[in-house]
Specification:
Layout (H helix, E strand, L loop, with lengths): L2 H7 L3 E7 L2 H17 L7 E4 L1 H11 L7 E4 H4 L4 H15 L7 E4 L8 H18 L5 E7 L5 H10 L2 E4 L2 E4 L6 H6 L13 E4 L4 H14 L4 H20 L6 E6 L3 E7 L23 H9 L2 E6 L7 E8 L5
Parallel strand pairs: 1-5, 1-6, 2-3, 2-4, 4-5
Antiparallel strand pairs: 6-7, 8-9, 9-10, 10-12, 11-12
Helix pairs in contact: 2-3, 6-7, 9-10, 10-11
């Protein structure tokens, strides 16, 4: 069997590591990390959590701690969920063994997240199951019930095929297929405000990029950040062009703190709920630009009608100024 075959046929392991005290945290984590340390042809496992919990792991693992890549959650789970997913994928590609094996455990940060941001994180957990299906890494997402909101812990049981807690590993009876979970409870997008500025694409994709960047500058977004917003919008317009939808329209508006740009098409459907979630591959594809859209914009909402004549919408939103 070739390395490629091993990478594409190995079963997915994506656990929700649920715990409610430090003792349960160690009960979940220590055997997981020791399995990674002992695995042949596999690099050191990585544990991403808070500094306090990293100290707990160092003490519990003793000399074996030198065989674990211990990293601070704050360095991984900053920015958008798309940014964190890119960090995880880059780490996996860089560090995985010859057959793709790697033990990774990470604990997202929840303090300071808005309800809308948390909803987006939940969808990205479903995405992780989708992205790594058929790949051999052993992934565990940590949920501390003392910190994580109850709805986040409940969602973890839906987005992870297995639960790993003090009772061991077992299938999650609530697991929902990623595409189903990602599209559930999608409410219609609010209508754009009357002051929204519209411009037809009419085949001028470069013009759409300039329009977005210029509007961003006029509304208070500065320098390189405005240019990146233009690139983000062009990811959506480029996808529309690849579908032969040159007659689409852009609408743009802003508040004191945020800017929104919406691409509307007159017909066609979006059938892939993970459009733009997957990183570009070796061969260029029409959705590659949408990966960059998601990397820059805090929220990228997709809506599609039930029939081809209904058209589809991509709404891109982010802050005018960087956070922090």
């Amino acid at each position: 069997m070739t390395d490629h075959q091993q990478r594409t046929t190995a079963p997915l392991k994506h656990h929700a590591g649920i715990h409610s005290c430090d003792e349960e945290f160690l009960t979940v984590m220590v055997p997981f990390l020791r399995d990674g340390i002992a695995a042949e042809d596999e690099p050191d496992p990585v544990a991403i959590t808070t500094p306090r919990k990293l100290d707990l792991l160092r003490e519990a693992l003793g000399p074996d701690a030198r065989h674990v890549d211990l990293q601070n959650s704050a360095d991984w789970y900053c920015g958008t969920p798309a940014n964190s997913m890119a960090t995880a994928l880059d780490y996996y590609v860089t560090h995985a063994g010859p057959t793709g094996r790697l033990h990774m455990a990470g604990e997202p940060l929840w303090n300071g997240r808005s309800p809308r941001q948390i909803t987006e994180w939940k969808r990205y957990e479903a995405l992780a199951t989708e992205l790594f299906t058929g790949a051999p890494p052993d992934l565990m997402c940590l949920y501390d019930t003392r910190i994580a909101p109850p709805d986040v812990v409940e969602a973890a049981r839906h987005t992870h095929p297995t639960v790993l807690d003090r009772l061991g590993v077992r299938p999650s009876p609530l697991f929902t297929q990623p595409a189903e979970y990602a599209t559930r409870d999608l409410a219609p997008l609010p209508e754009p405000p009357p002051e929204a500025v519209g411009v037809p694409l009419a085949g001028d994709m470069a013009g759409a990029r300039r329009f977005a960047a210029e509007q961003a500058r006029a509304r208070g977004m500065t320098g390189e950040r405005a240019d990146r917003f233009g690139v983000a919008v062009s990811g959506a317009t480029g996808y529309a062009a690849a579908q032969g939808l040159d007659s689409a329209q852009l609408l743009l508006w802003s508040t004191r703190e945020r800017i929104v740009c919406e691409l509307r098409t007159p017909h066609g459907r979006i059938t892939d709920p993970f459009l733009g979630f997957r990183p570009p591959g070796p061969e260029t594809g029409p959705e590659d630009g949408l990966w960059q859209t998601r990397q820059f914009c805090e929220f990228v909402d997709l809506r599609s009608g039930g029939a081809a004549e209904d058209g589809w919408t991509i709404r891109m939103e982010t802050a005018l100024a960087p956070s922090g």
